[in-house]
Amino acid sequence: MELSGRCLCGTVRFRVGGEPRVHYCHCDMCRRATGSAFAVLAWVPSQSVAWINATPTYRRSSPIAQRGFCSSCGSPLSLFYDASPDEVALHVGAFDNPAPLEPRYNYGSRQRLGWVCCGIDLPHHDTEERW
């Protein structure tokens, strides 16, 4: 499966091959980074991502991760954990066609906001990190 995506202004574009592993993330780090109640992330092998036109600007968002975003429009695009350099998470909302990227599990479940009801029937995994 080949997928493509971009930031809001189109400055940073990407193509990715393979079958992404998609989940909802409810951790407070993702909430703050996206300005939303949760993030929806698609994990792929790092080497399968081709950045087109420009690469994201990266910022260390915590002692364990860094995030990529468009320096022109600010769109969040990616998440890299230091402990997993062979994979990257891309924000599902940045894909040109996000419809087939259905989340399969929840992460950071203990930090889920009580009024969030999406994916309630999916498996749950927790994280110890809090930001």
From TrEMBL:
Q: Tell me where on the tree of life, at the top rank, the source sits.
A: Bacteria
Tell me the Pfam families matching this sequence: GFA
**What keywords is this UniProt entry annotated with?**
Lyase, Metal-binding, Zinc
Which family does the entry's similarity section mention? Belongs to the Gfa family.
Q: What is this protein called?
A: CENP-V/GFA domain-containing protein
* Residue ranges of domain CENP-V/GFA in the record: 3-106
- Would the keyword Lyase turn up in this protein's UniProt record? yes
Q: Does the keyword Membrane apply?
A: no
Task: Drop me one GO molecular function for this one.
Answer: metal ion binding
InterPro entries hit by this protein = CENP-V/GFA, Mss4-like_sf
